[in-house]
Amino acid sequence: MKGFVQATLAAVFAVAAAAAFGAPAKASFVLVTSTPRGDHSFVDAACSGAERAMKELGVTGKIIESQGVADQEAALRSAISLNYDLVLAPAIEADTVLSLAKEFPNQKFGVPSDIYVDKLPPNVAAFQINTHEGSFLAGLVAGKLTKTNVVGAVVAGDGPGLNIFYYGYRQGALTANPKCKVLVSYLGFDFSNPTLGKETALSQYQQGADIIYQVAGRSGEGVISAAKEKGLYAIGVDSNQDDMAPGNVIVSMMKRVDMTTFLLVKDMKEGKFQSGFKIIGLKEGGVSLSWDNGSKTFEQKGPKDMVAKLPEAKKLVAEYKAKILNGSFKVRNALDEAQVKQ
User: Are 196 and 137 within 8 A, CB to CB?
Assistant: First the structure.
């Protein structure tokens, strides 16, 4: 009996000590951002999903902000040291995540998207979001609404994880308007430079583009700023960016990283963590246009001649969305090497 009492007291003191030193409760996660919060895009969407999980699932959660590529490994190691059940690494360099997953095989890792490898370690679960499908729809809008028959794309870097946006967008623009010219500029994988984004967008506007799709994280804020300055148009990405420049941002292609972040935490809490990839796209609500989420900003703030063309553009989007969903139309996917060979 004495031994039982001592064991019980020891357990109570252990729990109290853990609480005192901030050890995580059962079912816990930590999210490490790829860049600081405040991009109104991918990072903010992932954090939104994490905050939703804390609120709705009753789990312990923490967000650690990395300052960029050079800081990502240190931030992840700091997260691992907390001994939380799940470490979330949205848009962290793939080599960094996989190396640490191998070094810490008992730590579960979740990647809401953007890790492009053939096989994952047994302690890593990841989502692949079919952003080419949503980007194609955004391209339809650009091709339908352009007045100059020139549209553009400012992309953070020239790689399959970013070209999956651009190739889909280009295909959409040319499907809607075969006479359209599509410009593209890459930023050397600089996601945190609004000045570079703005200068690049201004150059495309000078070449005749009147609508530019930004796929550049915080650098994309510069694209939207350039659209506002020139009285021209941009298409937002990842989150709803329509209100960043009302009347200049036509629509946003929403990549639901908030959803995948939430689902990874939910699976972990329910004991359903499973390594490997899950693929979601239009069918599962993984991508959408901001219009589908109720945004009427451009409809209310855009110039009358452009707004008058919206019903026709939306009709075209609905037509091709149905074709994608029933399998009668295939969007080009930069992750499929067979499709990107020239």
Answer: no
Q: Nearest 5°: phi and psi at 164?
A: -60, -30
Listed as own residue / partner, the contacts of 319-322 with beta carbons closer than 8 Å and 24 or more positions apart are: 320/136, 320/137, 320/140, 320/172, 320/175, 321/137, 321/282
Q: Which residues pair with 234 in a beta bridge?
A: 212, 249
Per-residue pLDDT of the chain (342 residues; tens, 9 = 90+): 444 334 433 333 333 333 333 445 468 999 999 888 988 888 999 999 999 999 999 999 999 999 888 889 999 999 999 999 999 999 888 899 999 999 999 999 999 987 878 889 999 999 999 999 999 999 999 999 999 999 999 999 999 889 999 999 999 999 999 999 999 999 999 988 999 999 999 999 999 999 999 999 899 999 999 999 999 999 999 999 999 999 999 999 999 999 999 999 999 999 999 999 999 999 999 999 999 999 999 999 999 999 999 999 999 999 999 999 999 999 999 988 534 443
Q: Is 162 exposed, middle or buried (0-12, 13-18, 19+ CB in 10 A)?
A: buried
The alpha-helical segments, DSSP class H, found in 67-130 are: 69-80, 94-103
Map tokens 């979601």 to a residue: 280
